[in-house]
Amino acid sequence: SEKQAAGWHLDGRVTAVVGTHTHVLTADARILTQGTAYISDLGMTGPYDGVIGRDAKPVLHKFLTSMHAPFTVAEDNVHMCGVLLSVDPETGKASSIRPMDISEDGSSHFFHDVLQGPDSAE
User: At 11, is the secondary structure helix, strand, or coil?
Assistant: First the structure.
């Protein structure tokens, strides 16, 4: 909720408010009423076959036993997540935001259509 509050507070004063830290690309990308692009989390850049970039086995071991084990970095199925923004150079307002996920094999996934700003013709 804090990220959403920041988005509304900054709407129209900044081009974009993009959240991080949950490591999961969220499905709430939008253009707020005054032209600020918003998304709660950009997702993770790193290996997806694990737990936030670490091999799953030692992470699960700690969860299940409360005993620490070294968390080694996972190496397979690397993705880069984020958003593509289009910005009006005169106003600085976002005209679209498009979440993306690009995998190491070169395939790209765009999770939904570009979202237009409040003054766009639908």
Answer: strand
- The structural domains of the chain, with segments of one domain joined by +, span 2-45+79-116
Sign of the alpha-carbon torsion through 91, 93, 96, 100? positive
> Whole-model pTM above 0.70?
yes
Per the CB < 8 A criterion, the answer to whether 104 and 71 are in contact is no
Tell me the percentage of the chain whose pLDDT exceeds 70. Answer: 90
d(CA 68, CA 77): 25
Q: Which of 26, 27, 77, 29 is nearest to 51 (CA)?
A: 77
Q: Is 8 helix (H, G, I), strand (E, B) or coil?
A: helix
